[in-house]
Please model this.
Amino acid sequence: MNARAYTLAALAGLAAPFLVPSYYVTLLDYVGVYGLVAIGLAWLTGVAGVVSFGQAALAGIAAYATAWLTTSTGLGAWAGLAFALPVTLAVALVLGLVTLRLKGHLLSLSTLAWGLAIAYAFGNIDALGSFTGLAGVPPIRLGPLSLGDNSRLYYLILTLVAAAIGLLNNLFDSRTGRALRALRGGTQLVESVGVDPFGARLTAFLIAAGLAALSGWLYAHLARFVSPTPFDARMGVEYLMMAMVGGASPLGGLLGAAFVTGLKDAIQDLLPRFLPGGGAPFEIVVFSALFILFLQRARDGLAPWLASLLPRPATPPSSAPPLPRRALPAAGSPLLALDHVSKRFAGLVAVNELSFEVRSGEIVALIGPNGAGKSTTFGLLTGALPLSAGAVQFQGRKISGLPAFRIARLGVARTFQHVRLRPRMSVIDNVLIGAHARLKTGVLAGALRLDRAEAASARSSALAALARVGLAERSEDLAGELPLGAQRLVEVARALIADPLLIALDEPAAGLRRPEKLALAETLRGLRAEGLALLVVEHDMAFVMSLADRLVVMDFGAKIADGPPAAARAEPRVREAYLGGAP
Amino acid sequence: MTPDIAAILAVDGLGAGAIYGLIAIGLVLIFTVTRVIFVPFGDIAAFAALSLAALEEKRLPGTAGLVLTLAVAATCVEVCSQRRRGWRRAILRALPPYLLAPALPVAFAAALAPLGPPAPVRVALAIALVLPIAPLLDRLVFRPIAEGGALLLLIVAVALHFALAGLGLAFFGPEGARTEPFLDLSLTFGDVTISGQTLLIVAAAILASAALYAFFRFALLGKALAAVAMNRTGARLMGIRPQRAGAIAYLAGSLLAGVSGVLIAPVDTIFYDSGFLLGLKAFVAAILGGLVSYPLAALGALLVGQLESFAAFQSSAFKDVIVFALLVPVLLWRSRLGDTPEEDVEE
Model:
C-alpha cells in the first residue's frame, strides 16, 4: 500500500462528515466502533490463526465496565476508560492463560463457550440492569467540549481507528508480526527458531482484547446505553464475518466492518420492499447465507484482493551492517552429547540407547536405512519430541526436557525433512523468522517503528544468508513459488541467520541437482571452517562421504558404527544393514 | 437442601440429561463421519417440538415451508453442479432425492393435519417432517467445503445456526409452544414422583443408544460409516462413498433430533430459537466424550443434566452461565488427554 493511497484515504476520512447526511455519519461511527473489534480479530484470526467467537463478549465487558462506573459514580468517560481497559485486559489475560494452549477447533469452541457465559452473565446481573441494560451513559468530553454529537465523536473514532491500523501495520512487519504470521500453520516451525508459541498467541490475544475494550468503551458512550444484545454470540459471529471478509491484515478489519455494516444497513433497507411486512426475520437469514457463501467461495477477503491490485513495492538492497555475531567456541570443544537416549512410541522402540557426541568445527553425518530412527533423533535433540529415557547435553548443560524454543535460543538451529516454510510469505520473511531469537524488538517498539536500525541489519544478514545458499535473487518471491530443492535451501538460510552453534540438517540435499549439491557442500564446509558444528542426515552417500568428518550409523534405532567415513564404511555391520547379510 | 429436594432435582436432571444425551449422540455421529460440529442440531429438535405442537392444533406446521424451501434450494444447487451431464439428466437425477423425498412427509402432513390424527401419528409426522432438514443442509452448506479444515466447518456451522433461527422465526413465529404429555402415568417413591414423560425420555435414550451401537457393530452400512470416520481416504479406496456416508449420518442425526424434540415438547415451552441452548448443552456433553465416544457422550449428557438441575436450584439465573463455563475445563481436560486435533494446515 503506498503513501498516496493512504493520503487519499485520510483526506476522505477527514472530509466525510461534511459530505454525507448525518444518518451516514452515525453509521460511519458504528463502522469505526465495530471496526476496532474487527481489526483486532483480523489480527488474531487472519494473522495468528486463532479463530475467536468471543470478541463481542470482551467488548461487552468494557462497555458494561464504563457504563456501570459512569452511571453509578458520576465520573466521566475517561475515568470509565481507565477502568474498562484494565478490567477487560485482566479478564482476557485469565481466559488466554487458561485456553490458549488448546489447539485448532477446540480453542475456537472454548471462545464460543466463554463468550456465551459472559453474555448470559450480563443479562442476569441485577447491578448491570439484567436484560434491560444500563441507560444514561454520559457522552465523552474533551475538556469543555462534549462529544455527544455523533459527528464530533466521529473524529475521535477516526483517530483511534487510524492509530490502530497504523500501529498494527508496523507490528505486522516487525519481529513480533513475523513470528505471529509464522504461527499460522503449526507450532513446530516457530518453536525451532526460538519463538514461544504460547507467548506469541497470548500477545496477539491481548492486542485483540485491548482493541475490543476500546470499541466497547466507545460503543457505550456513542449509544449512551448498554444491553446484552450487542455483545451476544450473534454479534460474535458478525465480528468474525467482518474479520474474514476483510482479510488477514489490519486494514482488512476496517474494510470488513465497513462492508458488513453497510450490507446490513442495505438489507434492512431493501428487504421490506421485497417482503412487505415480514422482512425482519429474513435479515439474519440473508446475512448468514451470504456469509456461508463467502466462506464457500472466496475465503481470502477484501484486503489481499486490493493489495494484489497495487504493485508490490520493490525493496532496495540493504546497506546496513549485518547483525553482530556471537563468539563461537574453539574448534574441537565438545558441544552436543547424547547419553543413552531412547524413544518409544507405544510398543515400538524408535531410538534405542543412542549415544554420540558432536564437537564444534566438525560435520557429523547421521546415516542409516529408512526407518532407522534418524529423524526421530533430530526431534529428540531439538526438543520437538520428548525423550523416553536418557539425556541430551549442550555445552555441558542438560537440554533434554526443555521446550524446543528454549533449545533453539541456546544456539541449535535445524531444518526439516518435510520442508516447513510459510508458502504465502516472501522468501526473505521466511529467512527473517530464523533471526527471531537474535533480535530484541518487543511489541511496543515494533508498533512504534523504533526497530528500524535493527530491522535493517536483520535484512542485511538475511540477504547475506540467502546469498550464501545462492538464492539472493529470489528474496522477494513467495516461498511457495520456489521448487522443492530451493525451498530446502531457504530452510538452510533460515538456520544460518539464527547465528547458531550447531545446525541440524535433515536431508538438505534431497531434490537438488548435482551442481547445487556441490555448491551446498561448499557452503557447509565454509561453515565448518568458521567453527560451527553440523549434524547432517542424508541419503546421498557421495555427498556424505565427501563432506563428513565422522559418521554415526544407525539401524533399528541403535548405533552400529561411529567413526571416520572410511572406517565406518568398512564396518561389517554397516554393510549388512545397507546391503543385507553378507554371504 | 434436603435429601428429598436433592432426589427431585436428580430426577429432573435425569430427564433433561437424557434429552441432551440423544442430541449429543447425534452430534458425535455427525462429527465422526463428517468432521462437522453440527451446531444447528438443537434447532432441528426445536423445530420437531414446534411441529408437534402445530399438529396438535390441527395446523400444518411451519416446518413444511422450511423443508420445501431447503429442498428447492438443494435441488437447484445439485442440478447446477451436475449440469455438465446435460440439463435433462441432471434434473431427472436430482429430483427424487432432493425434492420428491423431502416433499413426501410434507404432503402427508398437509393431508392429515386438518383431520386431527391420533397422538402416535402426530409424533410420526413431526419426526418425518424434520427428517430431511439435516441432509438438505449437508447438501447445501457442507458438501461444497467437505475437504476444508475443521475450523472452517465450525464457523460455517455456527453461521448456519443463525440462518436457521431466522428461518424458524419466519416459519413458526415468535410464540412458544408446549404439547400435551404422552402418558398420564407417574411413579411415586416416597416423596419423589417420576413422571411418565421422564421414563419415556430415558427409555427412548437407552433404546436409541442401543440401536446405534448395534448399527455400528453389526450392520455393514454402520461399519462403512465407522470406516469413513476413521479414515476418509482409506474408506474411499475400499469403495465407500464418503458423501453417501455423510448423508446417512445426517439422516440418522435428523432422526435423533426429531425424537428428542418430540420428547421435550411436553416438558418445556419451546420457542423458535430454543434449539441453540439445547444443542450447545448437548455439545458440552459430546465434548466430554472427546466428540468421538458415544458412551462417554451419553454419560456426559447425564452429568450436564444433573449440573443444570442443581445449578438452577442454587441460582436459576446463572444456570446457563455455569453450564457453558464448565465447557472450558472440560476442553482443557480433553486436550490433556492428548487426542488433540491435527494442526491446521495452511491453505
Observations:
- The two ends of chain A are 70 Å apart (CA to CA).
